[in-house]
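> forwarded from #structure-qc
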């Protein structure tokens, strides 16, 4: 327990701004690459993220945080706040979605992802959202389960051939 607390004191979080766009895109590129997607598949997705974040960060429809060790950015994640019509139990006009939690390899297993997740969960809870969702990677799933995330019954229909990572 004390070791975990000491490790957590090594890191701090700060909100990301549009000035941090390149760091957020680096994390997105690295995340998809580590999941096995080819650079050809990743480039258009990262380009779309650039366009999206350029508008969403200033508007507040996306919130992002960066993890720092000393002055080095070592990780980050963002929270998309989607407009939506509500469902029983969540009648508000918005729905939060956690995306792109990424930590540089040399800083993994030291509590950085947990720190980022707790920040985003606290933001959602304090904003009055009844829940928050995410799509886990295989590597992230154990942490998300420890934090209390549970599987849901989402399904998807693809309209064109989907290239899964090799």
């Amino acid at each position: 327990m004390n070791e975990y607390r000491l490790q957590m004191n090594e890191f701090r979080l700060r909100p990301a701004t549009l000035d941090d766009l390149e760091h957020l895109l680096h994390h997105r590129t690295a995340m998809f690459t580590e999941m096995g997607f080819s650079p050809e598949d990743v480039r258009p997705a990262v380009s779309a993220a650039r366009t999206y974040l350029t508008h969403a960060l200033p508007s507040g429809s996306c919130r992002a945080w960066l993890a720092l060790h000393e002055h080095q950015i070592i990780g980050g994640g963002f929270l998309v706040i989607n407009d939506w019509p509500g469902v029983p139990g969540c009648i508000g006009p918005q729905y939060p979605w956690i995306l792109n939690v990424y930590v540089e390899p040399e800083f993994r297993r030291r509590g950085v992802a947990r720190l980022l997740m707790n920040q985003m969960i606290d933001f959602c809870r304090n904003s009055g959202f009844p829940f928050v969702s995410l799509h886990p990677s295989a590597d992230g799933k154990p942490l998300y389960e420890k934090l209390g995330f549970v599987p849901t019954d989402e399904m998807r229909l693809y309209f064109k051939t989907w290239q899964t990572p090799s």
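QC bot note: The domain at 2-146 is CATH 3.40.630.30 (Aminopeptidase). Confidence is low (pLDDT under 50) at residues 1-6.
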